[in-house]
Amino acid sequence: MNNPGTIEVGKDGSASVTGELTFESAAALFSQTETLFRGPKPVTLIDLAAVTTADSAGLALLLEWQAQQRSASLPLEIRNAPPGLISLARLCEADDVMSVSGRGEGR
């Protein structure tokens, strides 16, 4: 693991993920789920602009986060996903169930 993923939560209902969103970092990032979504101001936007790489475990983590929010009737938008993550989501046919935009898509 070269650059483990980290999450920084803003006061405005957004969070930024930096570093790797991979098998090596997904468990540690998942451990922050309760803090992200069950606090007084749940996160409704995750920015991936600073994510350097992502794999299927990262995609699974994002899908889990969106499922949790959906079950609580809360939105979760994911912005600035790296191109590889967008391609993987399409390959797995997960892009239809995710609210995700890639880098440079103007959202």
Structure overview:
With 107 residues, the chain is an alpha/beta fold. The chain has one domain: Transcription Regulator spoIIAA. Helix content is 36%, strand content 28%. The chain contains four helices and five strands. It has helices spanning 23-30, 33-37, 56-71, 83-91; strands spanning 6-9, 14-21, 45-54, 77-81, 100-102. Strands 1-2-3-4-5 form a five-stranded mixed beta sheet. Helix 4 links the parallel strand 4 (77-81) and strand 5 (100-102). Helix 1 packs parallel to helix 3.
Total DSSP helices: 4
Measured as a percent range, the helix fraction is: 25-40%
Extract low-pLDDT stretches: none
Largest sheet: 5 strands, mixed
Cα-atom radius of gyration: 13 Å
Q: Estimate the strand proportion.
A: 25-35%
Give the averaged pLDDT, no decimals. Answer: 87
Strands of the largest sheet, in order across it? 1-2-3-4-5
The CATH C-level class name: Alpha Beta
Following the backbone from N to C, one meets helices and strands in this order, namely EEHHEHEHE
Look at the structure and name the CATH superfamily. Answer: STAS domain
CATH topology grouping: Transcription Regulator spoIIAA
Count of distinct strands:
5
Task: Give the second-level CATH assignment, the architecture.
Answer: 2-Layer Sandwich
